[in-house]
Amino acid sequence: MGEADRWALSGSSAGPFWRHLLAPGSDHINMASGDEDDPIIEEIDVYLSKSLADKLYLLQYPVRPGTMTYDDVNHLSAKIKPKQQRLELEMAMNTMSPNYCRSKGEQIALNVDGTTYDETNTYSVKMMDKQTFSSMQATTNTSRYAAAVFRKGELHITPLTGILQMRPSFSYLDKADSKTREREAANEGGDSSQDEAEEEAKAITVRFARPESEQARQRRIQSYEFLQKKQAEEPWIHLQYHAAKDSRSEHERQYLFCQSVDASQNSELVKTPKEYLAMLMPPLAEEKFAKPVGPSNVLSMAQLRTLPLGEQVKTLMKNVKLMPFANLMGLLASGSDQTSVLRCIQQVALLVQGNWVVKSDVLYPKNTCSAHSGVPAEVLCRGRDFVMWRFTQERSVMRKEITSIIKLPPEDVKEFLEHVATPRVNRGWEFLLPTDVEFIKKHPDVAHRQNMLWLGIQSKLEKVFNFSKEDFMPKSSPQPEPVHVSGVQRLKLAQERAQENKASLKRSLEARHADGSIQMTQKLDGEEEPMDTSSSVPNGSVNGYPGANSPGVDHANGGSPANGPSPELQEFVTNTFRKHAVLTLNELKRLFNLHLASMPAGQNVFSSISDHMLQDAVLLCQCKQIMVPFPAQSKAAPDERKVFGLWEKGDDFDKHRRLLYDLFTKNYRIRRSAIQTKLAQEFGDVSKAEVDRLLQECCICNAGYWYLKGTLQS
């Protein structure tokens, strides 16, 4: 393989420098002529050529038999990075071969390039018609390897620059993955928690980098990111490929012969047999390999279990940050004493909702600072302790509220939350693990001790951040009863409260019916909360859809409830269901929030839309609730269990959708064959295209089963 413009040639040395004396069947080499039992039969001059010494590579193809060469394959392009000895060859594929699967080739091209045509497309013919081979070094030391050619009794050898193994490159799969991620990001754009919204103006923290220590510099230059960056800095040199029988290739092969064979410059190699054999087979020297310096936070389980018990617990908690006690015992060496582990864990972690969270001063030791903003460790510890304390009070917190109190940069607050929580749509950040009730029941003394510790931390935080616990108590939640109240008193108090609630509910219901509303409220401790009655609408409701005799329906206005959903809301719901056909209440709320976020500022026509108003609008827009029988072990939230489907669109496909909804009221997942059989029984011969359209419009497939959209639980 040559280049468009060959590199500058280095000078070649004169030879022969070595006379190789061979005898048939001999097992040793004779450097003198005195041994009559091993006569010299021929002398061969060996020449050293250096014309191609710095650009000669041996290419190996380990994934292809030696009888199947690439000589007759069309080479589309070639490029090389000489310093790294990286070579890439692009070869055409025979798409007309009987061994080529055309459908697979088209599918791969579609995944990589998408449906649009662009100059940057990998496959311009909408089919995988080429493949790329990328090199890796077979050895880093090629001093013992050379290429040799024999001509007219002369052996010419050229040292090899490198030995490269060419293997197929699958970089097109990375491009396909990135395309998929871009499409998912475009579909889910803006889907984030309300507390994650960016503010129009925010404070900017300016920090100055500290001088880099020698140890930090060594770690940086040995890091994978640094090596990748250095490799990317070397530019590719594009080459021109010439076939083996091409005239240019024949011209390049001439450089494998020594260019100067003048006898006056010849230097005969004169060595003793012992020296010569030592040159051929040098004594083995034990190679010393430097142990790679790994990241400071990487430790194998075998190394971990050699540490003392306290160090094991500290290392695990520092890396995991949040862990149930049962999981911790499983990671420690077998036979670890539970009492000792409990003693160690309380030194490095705090109990939050029955789970152990690493202490802030373990994560942020003294005399350190934030990697994001440069904030000192003492300030970080106070802020993180406040976040952990909030999770001892409730399952979810709002990031914006946290930031307004602890006054730390958003990057640091996000890091605190990511340690122990995950963002939820419209619910802020929710604690990662469920409350470990079993641990609290099994170790009440530890739970009590940790509770007292949190009370001490709370008192310190109240002084630092100037707040009280009552500031975060939900106003509608009843205050906890004092522990000294007797059982008889509690029973009497509960009976009185039940009577008050019953009377309040009756009055509220009468008032609502009087003004034509179908929404009921209940009054608890002086606060009103909406109560969901969508599954029990009286007088003629069918599957959650109000019938003709339902109270509160204004028939003069086409069946809209008095003071019900606004026309704008009904228009949004109608358009959404005509597009998606099937939606859970949770997904509908997400789409509604996206719709609100996309509206220009000052043009929002929606005001205080509750979940009940949204459900009423759905039921009044030719939609019905589908009572899907979720499995008993399902962890779906209440909003995810409420599934609504488009009941009447005005086309011939309405009857197919209604039959499908009826099937899903009997089972939460159905085989395609069962759906197709039922359609054929009801409507006669139904084409495959119609079944495909129905399933794609309303369902999603997983593991051979079809589920209504939004009902498939991960």
Automatic annotation (TrEMBL):
GO cellular component, one term: RNA polymerase III complex
Residue intervals of the DNA-directed RNA polymerase III subunit RPC5 C-terminal domain: 474-714
Superkingdom, natural source: Eukaryota
Polar residues composition-biased segments: 532-542
GO biological process: tRNA transcription by RNA polymerase III
Transmembrane segments: none
InterPro entries reported in the protein's UniProt record: RNA_pol_III_Rpc5, RPC5_C
Residue numbers spanned by region Disordered: 175-201, 498-569
Compositional bias per record (Basic and acidic residues), positions renumbered to this chain: 175-186
Pfam families in the record: RPC5, RPC5_C
Identification of the protein by name: Polymerase (RNA) III (DNA directed) polypeptide E
Provenance organism: Fundulus heteroclitus (Killifish)
